[in-house]
Design a protein that fits this description.
The longest helix is centred in the N-terminal third of the chain and has 36 residues, at 78-113. The protein is globular, with a radius of gyration of 29 Å. With 793 residues, it is an alpha/beta fold. The strands form five sheets. Strands 17-16-15-14-13-12-25-26 form an eight-stranded mixed sheet, with no helix packed on it.
């Protein structure tokens, strides 16, 4: 007798039917928990999206589970019945969790957003503190919400946004207790945070507990130590070792994404496996008993989770590892898919909102693809190449086929060389993880830590160089149809490609027929995708009006507008990154820019300046604040630079422009949003327009009080991406027919807010949003203006 995954089978020749049946039975057992996990996940998605129905769903699920238990004795297929009972029980537990939490969340939302008053929340930071633009963002658990003299107690998950310079006290990190003051809005459906708090100020009242504080110091030490090494490898090192990406520049981050390598800086199963394996092996070398080895491995895993912070992918990987170690203690080594399914079920029951987390989805999908797809893909590839190469290729190929449809929902593009990039980077990833983690833990011994960091830098630099090289190749990013339709199309294409590879070389009639149909379908699908991409991408302007005067580029969460008059071109702001602006200008056929207006120097308005280097004649800009503002101007090369204030005028082709804001030498509004350059422009081929930068309501009131506005303006660029901080009276004076809202899809700020949309609707303005419509073109017409949208609104 021999053992296969703990199941005794008779020792017979490997190809005999009896052994195949035994292996099939093992595979069937391996998949038994999958329906349970799918049921729990599906019900969790429904419950968090429609929480009011969670109670009824929970009762129904528990009744079905009870019915299955009662029918056990009369059902022949008892295994199937057991799986169905577990699936119903998991669904009942998930929806019950949401049902119990819903009243508390609903009460907190009503309390925090009612009354129109500022609120104060006392929270404990529950995530990394990340920078987005000029603001800090973090998840937290609110213990108390106060509105004036009233207060509401109870644990409620929130997300907090605060300007970087509005944090007082030291030690803002995971585990800190802080008081945030500002306004709040409800979280989006499906989001774990019941409230999004936009804080004017955050005060740290207590630093993290000892363990979390030590972990933060270790991470900070690694970031500081790595900064002394050459870039760009130094930027990646903390991310690859402990998931700390604060040092990664925007250009390097874009290169990692284009090369499909960004997952390496998100701590996941591979990192946890290394930590558990090293700890378990070290205990074994010391002669420890199995229970002690498992305890040591679990302790190391817990410490690692604290060090890297409990992100969704880390929690999923740690739970899987814990279940596997527990099975080892019990002498029941679990199969990979069973462990993944059990871990997914446990986590979704514990936190149903994980079901809607992209990080968690990608983690589960990637792990599942490696367990289920890598082996058959390797077998198929081995018919065309040596087995070691086929095995190496199968891992990144399986991950890309499975994760591609999810990633397309985040960004409608496919990394063309992702598999090759991952193949090149794969050998370096574990090396930098081990050496970098050792450097982090060796912080009390600076000489040793510096040496280990230098060792970790070598593979880190290799990964960074791979990302930069691959992302610079022609066609590194293939545009793909956006949205759910694009995700389904890519999933079908991936499934077809996977089947064709896995069953390559088989000569059965069904296989030959399947290959022909699959190849034809793949060709048609790819052709349709390329065609749709061409129509909405490079060839899009062929169907657009040629007499456009104003273009609002889709550059994500940022501003980038183009104005054209009599062959002359002006660009107002550059968006957050160079690539989207370059793409937009190429589509519009713009090679040279006569006038660039940088309304202010926040990254979402000036971060893409490098795209216009040595392509600009004159630059107009507002007040300079930090040294970084001057560096943004330096990105432009030898352009004429003029700081402007209200009253400045000039010509663009046959159109005249005039600056309405900021006031010259005014100390009331320092450099930044409220000192944005506001410019009006009009001409025989340009409809009269006003572009409001990022002005808040207070600055808008001051602008209205200057008397410089002379409405109506048929076209307005709405201030600050459609934030709620607007002055309706200003828009009443402007009287727009068309309102351009430059905003990123699914942005964290909730822009555009309902308040400004309601104001614009009351004025009868047609709203054109770049997040929904993509590129927007405005043309003059005999009746006023005409708006062309890349995508239907």
């Amino acid at each position: 007798m021999s053992v296969i995954e703990g199941h005794p089978v008779e020792r017979i020749e490997p190809r005999s039917r009896r052994v195949v049946h035994a292996v099939d039975r093992v595979g069937a057992r391996d998949m038994r928990m999958v329906p349970v996990a799918i049921a729990a996940w599906a019900v969790a998605l429904w419950a968090v999206a429609v929480p009011a129905s969670a109670g009824a769903v929970s009762i129904a699920a528990w009744l079905l589970a009870l019915g299955g238990v009662l029918a056990w004795r009369w059902v022949g297929a008892r295994t199937a019945c057991a799986v169905a009972v577990l699936a119903c029980a998991a669904a009942g537990a998930v929806s019950g969790h949401v049902a119990l939490a819903h009243p508390v969340r609903e009460a907190a939302v009503a309390f925090a957003t009612g009354g129109g008053r500022a609120i104060e929340v006392e929270v404990v930071v529950a995530s990394k503190v990340e920078r987005h633009g000029d603001a800090l963002w973090f998840d937290a658990e609110a213990a108390a919400v106060r509105r004036g003299a009233d207060s509401l107690l109870g644990a409620v998950p929130v997300t907090v946004s605060v300007p970087q310079d509005a944090v007082s006290g030291a030690g803002l990190d995971l585990g800190s207790t802080v008081v945030a003051r500002g306004s709040a809005q409800p979280g989006d459906a499906g989001e774990r945070a019941a409230l999004v708090v936009f804080a004017r100020e955050v005060q740290v009242t207590s630093t993290p507990p000892a363990g979390l504080d030590l972990a933060a110091e270790l991470r900070d030490g690694l970031v500081e130590r790595a900064s002394a090494l050459p870039a760009p490898g130094a930027m990646l090192l903390p991310g690859l070792a402990v998931g700390d990406t604060r040092a990664v520049s925007e250009d390097l981050d874009a290169a990692m994404k284009a090369a499909s390598l960004s997952h390496l800086t998100a701590v996941s199963g591979a990192n946890c496996a290394l930590v558990v394996g090293i700890a378990f092996g070290a205990a074994a070398l010391l002669g420890a008993a199995r229970g002690v080895r498992v305890a040591v491995a679990l302790a190391a895993l817990a410490g690692f989770v604290v060090l890297v912070t409990p992100e969704p992918s880390v929690v999923r990987a740690a739970t899987m590892a814990s279940i596997a170690l527990l099975a080892l203690v019990l002498g029941r080594v679990g199969a990979g898919v069973s462990v993944l399914a059990l871990a997914t079920t446990v986590l979704v029951i514990a936190d149903p909102w994980l079901s809607a987390s992209y990080g968690f989805v990608l983690s589960v999908v990637a792990t599942g693809s490696l367990l289920l797809l890598a082996r058959p893909l390797a077998a198929g590839l081995s018919r065309w190449m040596p087995s070691p190469l086929a095995l190496a290729l199968s891992v990144p190929l399986a991950a890309q086929l499975a994760c591609g449809p999810v990633l397309v929902l985040l960004a409608p593009e496919v990394p063309a060389y992702g598999v090759v990039a991952n193949l090149l980077a794969a050998p370096a990833a574990p090396l930098v993880t081990i050496a970098g983690l050792a450097a982090c833990l060796a912080a009390p011994l600076p000489v040793l830590a510096d040496g280990l960091a230098a060792v970790a830098w070598v593979p880190s630099a290799w990964i960074a160089a791979t990302a930069q090289t691959v992302s610079a190749l022609p066609g590194a990013r293939v545009l793909w149809p956006p949205g759910l339709g694009g995700a389904v199309l890519l999933a079908l294409a991936g499934a077809t490609a996977g089947v064709l590879i896995a069953r390559a070389g088989r000569i059965g009639a069904w296989d030959v027929w399947a290959r022909r149909v699959g190849a034809a379908g793949l060709a048609l699908g790819t052709g349709a995708a390329v065609g749709a991409t061409a129509l909405t991408g490079v060839a899009g302007p062929l169907a657009a009006p040629r007499d456009w005067a104003i273009a609002a580029c889709d550059v994500g969460q940022g501003d980038a507008l183009v104005v054209r008059s009599a062959g002359s071109v002006a660009v107002i702001d550059t968006g957050p990154e160079p690539e989207p602006l370059s793409s937009c200008l190429a589509r519009l056929g713009v090679a040279r820019v006569d006038l660039l207006v940088l309304t202010h120097f926040d990254v979402d308005h000036a971060g893409g300046a490098a795209a216009l280097r040595d392509r600009v004649g004159t630059v107009l800009h507002g007040p300079l604040g930090e040294a970084a503002d001057a560096r943004a101007l330096d990105e432009l090369g030898a352009a004429q630079r003029i700081q402007v204030a209200a009253g400045a005028t000039g010509m663009l082709g046959s159109a005249r422009w005039r600056v309405l804001w900021p006031r010259a030498a005014s100390a009331a509004f320092p450099a930044g949003n409220d000192a944005s350059v506001v410019i009006e422009i009009a001409g025989p081929d340009v409809p009269r327009s006003i572009l409001l930068g990022d002005l808040s309501a207070s600055a808008q009131a001051a602008l209205l009080g200057t008397g410089l506005l002379a409405g109506p303006y048929p076209v307005v660029k709405v201030a600050h991406h459609g934030s709620a901080d607007q002055l309706p009276e200003l828009y009443g004076e402007i009287g727009p027919s068309v309102a351009l809202v430059t905003v990123g899809a699914d942005n964290d700020y909730g822009h555009p807010r309902e308040e400004i949309l309601t104001t614009l609707a009351a004025l009868g303005a047609s709203v054109a949003r770049t997040d929904r419509s993509g590129l927007v073109l405005v043309s003059p017409s005999p009746d006023g203006v005409t708006v062309w949208r890349e995508r239907p609104p």
